[in-house]
Automatic annotation (TrEMBL):
<feature type="domain" description="CBS">
    <location>
        <begin position="86"/>
        <end position="141"/>
    </location>
</feature>
<dbReference type="InterPro" id="IPR046342">
    <property type="entry name" value="CBS_dom_sf"/>
</dbReference>
<dbReference type="InterPro" id="IPR051257">
    <property type="entry name" value="Diverse_CBS-Domain"/>
</dbReference>
<protein>
    <submittedName>
        <fullName>CBS domain-containing protein</fullName>
    </submittedName>
</protein>
<feature type="domain" description="CBS">
    <location>
        <begin position="20"/>
        <end position="78"/>
    </location>
</feature>
<dbReference type="Pfam" id="PF00571">
    <property type="entry name" value="CBS"/>
</dbReference>
<dbReference type="InterPro" id="IPR000644">
    <property type="entry name" value="CBS_dom"/>
</dbReference>
<keyword id="KW-0129">CBS domain</keyword>
């Protein structure tokens, strides 16, 4: 049986990069909500990273945003742009942060997901409370 203490397995401290999701899907800020919904369905994701004209992250849009900020208000998804309903600004953490520290951060800040940057400040992925749950279920934590 493997000895576990917090997020340590066999003396290895799990880091954010060990549990994060790589390959974050993006959408331009000036695209319509209809396009965002189509992309989410095509890519089978519940979140898109919103980028500006320089491809820099400026926000996120989720299925929940579309449901509550567009559909519930009876607005036309073709007429509402992503920039209008996105959540901004985005918060980031470093991929080398320990999973234990990530758990504390989620608890204190009330975030459900965070963008992950590498040591060069480049986007490496996204990590969510669901990723932490998967890590627990798969005996990583």
């Amino acid at each position: 049986m493997t000895e576990k203490k917090g997020a340590v397995i066999k003396g290895i401290i799990l880091k954010v990069k060990d549990i994060m999701t790589k390959g974050v899907k993006t959408i331009a800020y000036n695209k319509s909500i209809k396009e965002a919904a189509e992309n989410m369905l095509k890519e089978k994701v519940s979140l898109l990273l919103v980028v500006d004209g320089s491809n820099k992250p400026i926000g996120v849009v989720t299925r929940k945003d579309i449901a509550f900020r567009v559909i519930r208000k009876s607005e036309s998804p073709e007429d509402v742009m992503v920039a209008v309903i996105m959540s901004a600004p985005v918060s980031t953490i470093n991929e080398n942060l320990s999973a234990v520290e990530l758990g504390k951060f989620f608890g204190e800040k009330k975030y459900k997901r965070l963008l992950v940057e590498n040591d060069n400040g480049e986007l490496a992925g996204i990590v969510s409370t669901t990723d932490m749950l998967k890590a627990v279920a798969n005996n990583k934590i």
